[in-house]
Design a protein that fits this description.
It is a single chain. The chain is of the alpha/beta class. It folds into 2 domains: 350 residues, ABC transporter transmembrane region fold (Up-down Bundle); 238 residues, Rossmann fold. α22 links the parallel β7 and β8. About 1% of the residues have low confidence.
C-alpha cells in the first residue's frame, strides 16, 4: 500500500474525474445487483413457486430498501390476474434487460473516465522524471548509466501502467462491486454469508504468502533491463570502433550473457505471478462447493429460521459467482502491486533525487556582467579525491584566460565552476564581486556561451540547432551567426539549406561542420562570457583553421576562458594558467612563461617536436 500511496499523489490532482468515475462505478454495481437479484422472482415464477411470493418480508432495514422485494410484491399481485404469469414473465425479462443495459452503460462510462486518469498519471510521472533529469547536476550523469535512466523512462513506466495503474482500477472498482453484492447476500441469508466470510481470510493468507517475493525478483529484472539498455546505447555510439577492432563477437557475448540472465529472472518472476490465477480459482471453486452444500442444506431443512426458497438460493449463487471475479481481480492486484512496486520505487528514486546545485530562495538575477570573474581559494573534492586545491584567479571583463596542463590536471573542473555545473567544496566563485550562489542559475548561464570539444548537436534542422539558446530567433539572426562561424558556406551547399536535418548527434555533418554549428549557436546567443573547452583538438588541419577563425570571431570583445590542448591556439591569451594535479604551478603570458623555462615551456617543446 505504501507504493500505491505514491500513485495517489498523482490521482488527487484530478478530483473531478475520480469523483465521476466512482459515481459511475456505484451505479454500475447497483444495477448489476438488481439484474442478478431479479433472477429470484424469475426462477420462483418458472418453477411454479407462486406461494413463495406471499412470503416476501419487508421487515428489517435491508428488506425495506431492497427494490427486488418490492418488485416481488408487485409480481405477486400480477400473477393473480388472468394470464398474469405470462405477463409477469415478460415484465421480469424487460426489467432485467433494462437493468443490464444500465449496468453496462455505467460500466463503460466509468472506464471512459478512467482512461484519462491513467494516462494523466503516466504523463505526470514521465514529465516529472524528464524535468528532474534536466535539473540534475552534470556530475550525476557521470555516475549513472544512461541505459538505466532510459529504462526508467520506458520499461519502468510500462510496468507501472500494466501493473500498478491496473491495480488502481481494481482497487477503485472492485470494492464497490463487492460491497453492494455483499450487502445483498447478507440480506438474502446472513447465515450463509457469515459462513463465506469465515472462509475468505484463509484464501487471502494462502495467496498472500505466494506473492511476497515478486517485488525483489522484479527489481532484479529492471536492473537487468537497465544494463541491457546501457550495452545497446554504448554499441550504437561506438559502432565504428567495434567494427574496427573486430569486437562484434565479444560485444555480442556480453549482450547475450546479460540477456540470458534476464531471461531466467523473468521466467522465475512470471511463474510466481501466474500462480495467483489458478490458486485463486481453485479456492473460489472450493468456496462455491461449500456454499452449494451449506446453502442446499438450508433449502432442504425443515427449520424455518434457516430456510431459503430455491429462487433466492439460486440467485444467491449467481451473485456469488459474479463476486468471484472481483475477488480474483483483487487477488491478482496484490501480485501486480508487488511487481509494480519495484518500478515505482525506481521512478520515485529518480524524481526525488537530490539536486546538488540549488538556488537560494532569495537568489537575485544577474542582469549584466560588468566587472570580473574571480575564484578565491577554491578547492573541489569528488568523494575522497581532491581535484582542485586552493585556486585563486581573477578574469577581468574583456580578457582571455587560457587553462593548460596535462590530462587530469583539473582544467575542465575549474571551468565547470563558473556556470555552476558544480559547486566549490571550499572557497567561493564571484561574478562582479558577488558569490554566484546568490544569483539564479538561469541568469548566470544566460551570460555564458560554451563550445565543447565534442560538438553536442540534436536530431533536428541546422537552423533549430543554431537557435537553441535564443527564443524566437529570426532567420536573419541565424544566417548572420552562421556567417561569423564560417558555417554558411557548407550550409548553402545542402539541398535544404538551413532546414537540413543533421541526424542523430549531427552525424550527417563532418567534425568541422558540426563544430562550426556549435560556434554559430554561441554567436547567436551573444554572451558576454565565453567558455571554450578544447574546441579544435579533435579536428584535422583544414577544419581546425576554419573553426579557429570562427572562434577568433566569436571571442572578439568577450571575456573568454579557453581550455587548450594545442598551445599554439592560446599564444595571444592575456594570461595563461598552468595547472598540474589540481594546483596552479605557473601563470603569465606566453612569452613570460617561455622565459621561465618551466612546465609550460616543456609542454610547448613537446608539441613542437611532434
Amino acid at each position: 500500500m505504501k507504493n500505491i500511496s505514491k500513485i495517489f499523489k498523482y490521482v488527487k490532482k484530478y478530483p473531478g474525474l475520480v469523483g465521476t468515475y466512482f459515481t459511475f462505478n456505484i451505479l454500475a454495481a447497483i444495477f448489476g445487483v438488481i439484474s442478478l437479484g431479479l433472477l429470484s422472482p424469475f426462477l420462483m415464477l418458472i418453477f411454479g413457486q407462486k406461494s413463495a411470493f406471499d412470503e416476501v418480508s419487508k421487515s428489517g432495514l435491508f428488506n425495506k430498501i431492497n427494490p427486488v422485494n418490492y418488485f416481488k410484491t408487485w409480481i405477486a399481485e400480477l400473477v393473480k390476474t388472468p394470464e398474469g404469469s405470462i405477463r409477469a414473465l415478460m415484465v421480469i425479462c424487460i426489467v432485467v434487460l433494462i437493468a443490464i443495459l444500465l449496468k453496462n452503460l455505467f460500466a463503460y462510462l466509468s472506464m471512459y473516465m478512467l482512461n484519462p486518469i491513467r494516462n494523466r498519471i503516466l504523463n505526470d510521472m514521465r514529465s516529472g522524471m524528464y524535468e528532474k533529469i534536466l535539473n540534475l547536476p552534470i556530475g550525476y550523469f557521470s555516475e549513472q548509466r544512461k541505459g538505466d535512466i532510459m529504462s526508467k523512462l520506458s520499461n519502468d513506466l510500462n510496468d507501472v501502467e500494466n501493473s500498478t495503474i491496473s491495480v488502481m482500477e481494481s482497487l477503485f472498482r472492485e470494492p464497490v462491486t463487492i460491497l453492494f453484492y455483499f450487502i445483498y447476500m447478507v440480506g438474502v441469508s446472513p447465515q450463509l454469508t457469515l459462513f463465506l466470510v469465515l472462509f475468505l481470510p484463509v484464501a487471502g493468507l494462502v495467496l498472500g504468502r505466494i506473492g511476497r517475493s515478486l517485488k525483489k525478483q522484479n527489481t532484479q529484472v529492471l536492473e537487468k533491463f537497465g544494463a541491457l539498455f546501457s550495452i545497446i546505447e554504448e554499441t550504437l555510439g561506438g559502432m565504428r570502433i567495434i567494427k574496427a577492432f573486430n569486437a562484434e563477437k565479444k560485444i555480442q557475448k556480453k549482450f547475450e550473457d546479460e540477456n540470458e540472465s534476464m531471461f531466467h529472472l523473468k521466467n522465475k518472476a512470471n511463474r510466481r505471478r501466474d500462480l495467483a490465477s489458478p490458486v485463486s480459482e481453485v479456492l473460489g471453486i472450493v468456496a462455491v462447493l461449500c456454499i452449494l452444500w451449506y446453502g442446499g442444506k438450508m433449502v432442504l431443512t425443515q427449520d424455518k429460521s434457516f430456510t431459503l426458497n430455491a429462487g433466492d438460493f439460486l440467485a444467491y449463487i449467481a451473485i456469488f459467482a459474479q463476486l468471484i471475479q472481483p475477488l480474483k481481480s483483487l487477488s491478482n492486484a496484490s501480485y501486480n502491486m508487488q511487481k509494480g512496486a519495484a518500478s515505482i520505487e525506481r521512478i520515485e528514486g529518480l524524481i526525488n533525487e537530490t539536486v546538488g546545485i540549488r538556488e537560494l530562495p532569495d537568489a537575485k538575477v544577474l542582469k549584466e556582467f560588468t566587472s570580473a570573474i574571480e575564484l578565491k581559494n577554491v578547492s573541489f573534492r569528488y568523494e575522497d579525491n581532491l581535484i582542485l586545491k586552493n585556486i585563486s584567479l581573477k578574469i577581468e571583463k574583456g580578457k582571455t584566460v587560457a587553462l593548460v596542463g596535462s590530462s587530469g590536471a583539473g582544467k575542465s573542473t575549474l571551468a565547470d565552476l563558473v556556470p555552476r555545473f558544480i559547486d566549490a567544496s571550499e572557497g567561493e566563485v564571484l561574478i562582479d564581486g558577488v558569490n554566484i550562489k546568490n544569483y539564479t542559475l538561469h541568469s548566470i548561464r544566460d551570460q555564458m556561451g560554451i563550445v565543447t570539444q565534442e560538438a553536442i548537436l540534436f536530431n533536428d534542422s541546422i537552423a533549430n540547432n543554431i537557435a537553441l539558446g535564443k527564443e524566437n530567433a529570426t532567420k536573419e539572426e541565424i544566417t548572420h551567426a552562421a556567417q561569423i562561424a564560417n558555417a554558411e558556406i557548407f550550409i548553402n551547399k545542402k539541398e535544404e539549406g538551413y532546414d537540413t536535418n543533421i541526424g542523430d548527434r549531427g552525424m550527417k555533418l563532418s567534425g568541422g561542420e558540426r563544430q562550426r554549428v556549435t560556434i554559430a549557436r554561441a554567436v547567436l546567443k551573444n554572451p558576454p562570457i565565453l567558455i571554450l573547452d578544447e574546441a579544435t583538438s579533435s579536428l584535422d588541419t583544414e577544419s581546425e583553421r576554419l573553426v579557429q577563425d570562427a572562434i577568433n570571431n566569436l571571442m572578439t570583445n568577450r571575456t573568454s576562458i579557453v581550455i587548450a590542448h594545442r598551445l599554439s591556439t592560446v599564444r595571444h591569451a592575456n594570461e595563461i594558467i598552468v595547472l598540474q594535479k589540481g594546483e596552479i604551478v605557473e601563470r603569465g603570458t606566453h612569452d613570460s612563461l617561455i622565459a621561465q623555462n618551466g612546465f609550460y615551456k616543456k609542454l610547448v617543446d613537446m608539441q613542437e617536436v611532434k
